[in-house]
Amino acid sequence: MAALFIDPIDFAGLLYGSGGKALASYAISCMGEKFDYVGYTSAPLKIGEWTQIKLYGKNIRFLPVATAAEIDATKIGFKNIRFTLALVKHIKALKKSNSKAVFTHAWPVLWLFSHLLRKWNVCFDAPGLANPSLFRHRNIFERFILNPMFNYIQITAFNKANVVFAAADNTEIQRYLKSIGKLKITKPIISLPTAVNTDIFSPKSKDAMRNAKKLPSTKKIFIFIGRLSRVKGIDFLMQALNEFNHKFGDGMLLILGQGECKDELENFCDKMRLRECVKFLGNLPPQEVAEFVGLADACIVGSLTEGFSNSMVEALACGRPIVSTDVSGASEIIKEGVNGFIVKERNPIIFSEKMNEALYLKDAENYSRQLALKNYSKEILWKKVEEMWPVFK
């Protein structure tokens, strides 16, 4: 009997560009028919009815509970809630799957099945624990009413779930457990690192990739991959690049991704007079992302907080050095002075100096590639899920 994979994703769209989409693509390619899939769709499918679709060479059962137009019309931050409300309308269709096991990556879906639909076996994969959009303290109402209410709902949902994973390292998990104060989680939160397709993301010839993309061989090229949002610290990375160019010269930053802060970041780039050495390349398919990582000298991460960074794991699989702020997962991926550096001070001058040092790490490629194959392949991720959540027969 298949379990249900339920996430607010357009299964007729491009399954890349976010951690959730990557997770869905890896579930399909690794697990196939072990799951029935529930999401929304931009294809002309009948909403609320199970259908067969083919993705990544696998024939899978899919239940669309909303159209992409409905979900995309919702403001950022409320799409998961809008999807979950659509899901409620189609509970009868869910029950037709004859499954009582649910895997989800979305908080509101967890709340629904933990608090209202209690007879289900629920496995939740938290997309990080220190999410500033959820745990922020911007005013008195949020600090003393909204956030405590959220924490209570969330932790009681954790306790009612059967298995809880988190895209966070063990240090971040312990920090989170301390932060919730008197509230108690009665079951372990299991670290489940972000996975990568090690066939697509693999070491490549830097010169060949630069020739193919028509990028200069003489430049020191750094790459950022991720959502264009404030939490990712892209403005900080541009400041670090500016310092790098003042001190060392010939630096370029490639920014791959889309997000709500694109216009703001482009304006900041113009204000810093960096337009000639910063390129916004948008959302690209995994094969192209891997090619750009392959031509880069190093990957840089400036996030204020992370779950378990997709971009770091992709850079690792490609054998590229990483310079990162001190976020969840960094200490497990980066061996200081071997395949990168963790910069604890949020200082663009110090960060730029580590960017320069990363250019001369001779053992980075071999060390990083072996670590990726050992710990972060998509096959390893789903093997761990099957071991810790034994519902597949």
Fraction of helical residues: 40-55%
Task: Kindly report the average pLDDT value.
Answer: 92
Strand order of the largest sheet: 3-4-2-1-5-6-7-8
Poorly predicted ranges (pLDDT <50, ≥5 residues)? 131-137
Q: What's the alpha carbon Rg, rounded to whole Å? A: 21 Å
Characterize the overall form: globular
E-strand count? 14
Number of helices: 16
Give the DSSP E fraction (strand runs of 2 or more residues). Answer: 15-25%
From the helix content, strand content and strand pairing, which structural class follows?
A: alpha/beta
Describe the overall structure:
The structure is a single chain. The chain has 393 residues and is of the alpha/beta class. About 2% of the residues have low confidence. Helix content is 41%, strand content 19%. α8 crosses α11. The protein starts with a strand and ends in a 5-residue tail after the last helix. The strands form 2 sheets. An 8-stranded mixed sheet has the order 3-4-2-1-5-6-7-8, sandwiched between helices. The protein has a 6-stranded parallel sheet with strand order 11-10-9-12-13-14, sandwiched between helices.
Give the SSE layout:
Layout: E1 3-10, H1 19-31, E2 35-41, E3 51-55, E4 58-67, H2 68-72, H3 79-88, H4 91-95, E5 101-104, H5 107-116, E6 121-126, H6 140-160, E7 163-166, H7 170-179, E8 189-191, H8 206-213, E9 220-225, H9 234-247, E10 251-256, H10 262-271, E11 278-282, H11 286-295, E12 298-301, H12 310-317, E13 322-325, H13 330-333, E14 340-343, H14 348-358, H15 364-375, H16 378-388
Parallel strand pairs: 1-2, 1-5, 2-4, 5-6, 6-7, 7-8, 9-10, 9-12, 10-11, 12-13, 13-14
Antiparallel strand pairs: 3-4
Helix pairs in contact: 3-5, 5-6, 8-11, 9-14, 12-15
